[in-house]
């Protein structure tokens, strides 16, 4: 491939450029290119503290369960405000009242247990039952090593939450851990409201 010769106007332009250009010192240019500007380390981010809301006082007729996940479910339920007749509540906790129906969720997954519990509670209330037993089981004693840690007794912790959310909250008056004769910490007594 042959080189093309510059035209006279291009040669004149090149001459003007070279007259005004200054020769660079290669060492100084390299030093300037390698010079690192000092950068201050980033300031640590201040994370705001979270404030917790006061515990709900419990509107009359509403089951009260705090969402404090650090305390065991049984302890949270025992500290909940009593919404039903105190004498009947004490008898229920001692296992003196016999549940009129029961559902065993033991071994079910969360996606099967939730609809089964919803059907059971709503149909029990529709049938006029007042005291039912919900068996959750005590849960596995070990974590299976998945990427997300699993709580000991997932159903045991989740069932009280489901019972305090719609549509079940309108049917439930009181939740308490069952007496040892009805399953102990692996079951709950659920006292239902009278059907209107």
What proportion of the residues is helical, as a percent range?
A: 25-40%
Give me the Rg, rounded. Answer: 36 Å
Tell me the CATH topology of the domain at 73-140 and 151-192. Ribosomal Protein S8, Chain: A, domain 1
Q: Give the tally of β-strands.
A: 4
Structure notes:
This protein has about 200 residues and is of the alpha+beta class. The chain has a domain at about 75-140 and about 150-190: Ribosomal Protein S8, Chain: A, domain 1, CATH 3.30.1370.110. Helix content is about 30%, strand content about 10%. The protein has helices spanning about 10-20, 25-35, 75-80, 85-95, 110-125, 155-165, and strands at about 100-105, 130-135, 170-175, 185-190. The protein has a 4-stranded mixed β-sheet with strand order 1-2-4-3. Helix 5 links the parallel strand 1 (about 100-105) and strand 2. It is rod-shaped and about 110 Å long.
């Amino acid at each position: 491939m042959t080189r093309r010769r510059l035209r006279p106007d291009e040669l004149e332009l090149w001459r003007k450029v070279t007259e005004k250009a200054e020769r660079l010192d290669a060492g100084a240019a390299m030093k300037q290119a390698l010079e690192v500007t000092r950068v201050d380390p980033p300031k640590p981010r201040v994370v705001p503290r979270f404030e917790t809301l006061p515990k709900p006082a419990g509107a009359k007729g509403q089951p009260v369960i705090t969402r404090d996940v650090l305390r065991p479910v049984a302890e949270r339920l025992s500290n909940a405000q009593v919404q039903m007749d105190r004498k009947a509540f004490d008898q229920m906790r001692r296992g003196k009242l016999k549940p009129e129906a029961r559902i065993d969720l033991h071994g079910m997954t969360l996606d099967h247990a939730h609809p089964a519990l919803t059907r059971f509670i709503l149909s029990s209330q529709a049938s006029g039952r007042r005291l039912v037993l919900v068996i959750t089981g005590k849960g596995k004693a070990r974590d299976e090593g998945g990427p997300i840690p699993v709580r000991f007794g997932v159903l045991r912790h989740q069932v009280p939450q489901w019972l305090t959310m719609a549509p079940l909250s309108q049917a439930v008056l009181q939740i308490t851990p069952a007496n040892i004769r009805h399953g102990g910490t692996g079951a709950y007594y659920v006292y239902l409201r009278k059907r209107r």
